[in-house]
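Researcher: Sequence of SGF29 C-terminal domain-containing protein follows. Predict its structure.
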Amino acid sequence: MMNASQLQLTEQTKELLALCETAVFSALQSALDKIAHIRQLEHEIRVSLGPRSFRRGVLMSVLQESAKTIPLWAGKPGEKAPPLCGAIPASPGTFVQPGDLVAALVPEPDVAATAACNLSEGCILAEVVQYDQDKRTYQVEDVDAEEGKV
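Model: Prediction complete. Tokens:
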């Protein structure tokens, strides 16, 4: 059986743990916000400099480095992940932001577009340029375009 001082210590420990958890979550969220801001600035600089051409090996190195900084979602315990996080599909109101890298389906002109992306139908790695709300389509730029390659 616990006495009053032990019970008070247990309650204080729980409060302290809750405060620590909140502080860690707040610090993590702040760091993720700063990373997102830096990525946005990098994108704006990249767009202002215009397109660059890379040798294939250099492009693969750039893509590997970019993969290390893929945005991270960190939620509170019990919180559900947002759309496009892991295997969670996009909701109808979800839009991809300009600068995001996507797998884009480029169907053959005589073949109807399908929802699945496979190599025979021309799936490319692309960067989103803009979203056309009237046509409900994305304009993308092929990251690995052959034109202008060294």
